[in-house]
Amino acid sequence: MPDFTAPMTGGQSFQLAGRPAKYTVLYFYPKDNTPGCTTESMAFRDHYQQFQQAGIDIYGISRDSLRSHEGFKAKLGLPFELIADSDEAVCLQFGVMKMKQMYGKTVRGVERSTFIIDAEGKLVKEWRGVKAATHVDEVLEFVARLK
Q: What is the 3-state secondary structure (H, E, C) of 12-81?
């Protein structure tokens, strides 16, 4: 995967290259404080310890601002950081910007997607167009086979 750097919550900057974890999970979601994105983020939060025990770091990414991310993270008690991609550079790099239907209108937005990247920066697995309610279970099932 091409390296990238982007601002994230906690006053930090995320850089893909040189991540200390064995694996990094990047989950792209459309918008803070929306029902599906809240469900997905809470599921990653609720299973955070399982990911950590497997040597996997989790990061959420959307086009929302750092301010929005800080509020969303605090509201849900997320133990991981959220990456702000306000200029869509990372979303475009990962090919998650799509035309989709929302309330009968065609809109351009983020396709809910998850990527697992190893410590050398290689893509291990990707999921696109995922369902928020059951997706984390799929990721955990895959992660269990990585050991």
A: EEEECCCCCCCEEEEEECCCCCCHHHHHHHHHHHHCHHHHHHCCEEEEEEECCCHHHHHHHHHHHCCCCC
- Write down the pTM of the prediction: 0.94
Which one of the listed residues 8, 37, 43, 116 is annotated catalytic?
Answer: 37
Taking 3-state DSSP, the helix, strand and coil percentages for the chain, each rounded to the nearest 5, stand at: 30, 35, 35
Tens of pLDDT, residue by residue over 41-65, are 999 999 999 999 999 999 999 999 9
| Catalytic (active site) residue 91 | no
**CB-CB contact of 92 with 58 (8 Å):** no
In 3D, which of 104, 30, 98, 26 has the Cα closest to residue 62? Answer: 30
